[in-house]
Write a structure and sequence with these properties.
This protein is mainly alpha-helical. The protein has one domain. The protein contains five helices and two strands; from the N terminus they run αββαααα. Helix 1 crosses helix 4 and helix 3 packs antiparallel against helix 4 (84-102).
Length: 140
């Protein structure tokens, strides 16, 4: 097989997996957030109190999920006509970005934070499961 064909196959597989990879990164961050909430691990940062999530901060230094990442995933999914779960995960990532810009502007009870975090973890886990099954089917 030639290089062009292998590159095309690699790009198609990347387009199928990329939104689920973003969901996995979000899942790691949310899991660490929930763990920090459960053990009450807070730190004073820039005059405010925030959760101590060093692993998520490390990932955030290397790669930050933003609107450009989600737009790239959307464009790739449209270009390669991916499945409905791919597009649904992208819609979820857009909603998550909206949450990340809205929730810091308001004060929430700790119970609400737990509920939001657990709901997002469940959704991300579902999308990661779907992504793994899709990847394993395409790898055969």
């Amino acid at each position: 097989m030639n290089l062009v064909y292998k590159s095309r196959i690699g790009l198609i597989r990347f387009a199928k997996v990329f939104p689920f990879l973003l969901c996995f990164i979000v899942l790691i961050s949310l899991s660490e957030t929930l763990f920090a909430l459960v053990i009450s691990n807070f730190v004073v940062f820039d005059g405010g109190i925030t959760l101590n999530t060093p692993f998520a901060w490390f990932i955030g230094e290397k790669y930050e999920i933003g609107i450009y990442s989600v737009l790239l995933a959307i464009f790739l999914s449209i270009a390669f006509e991916t499945c409905i779960w791919n597009k649904t995960s992208e819609v979820y990532l857009l909603v998550l970005l909206k949450q990340q810009t809205y929730f810091p502007t308001i004060e929430l009870y700790i119970e609400y934070i737990y509920a939001i975090c657990i709901a997002n973890i469940l959704i991300c886990t579902f999308f990661c499961y779907k992504g793994i099954t899709i990847f394993l089917k395409s790898a055969k």
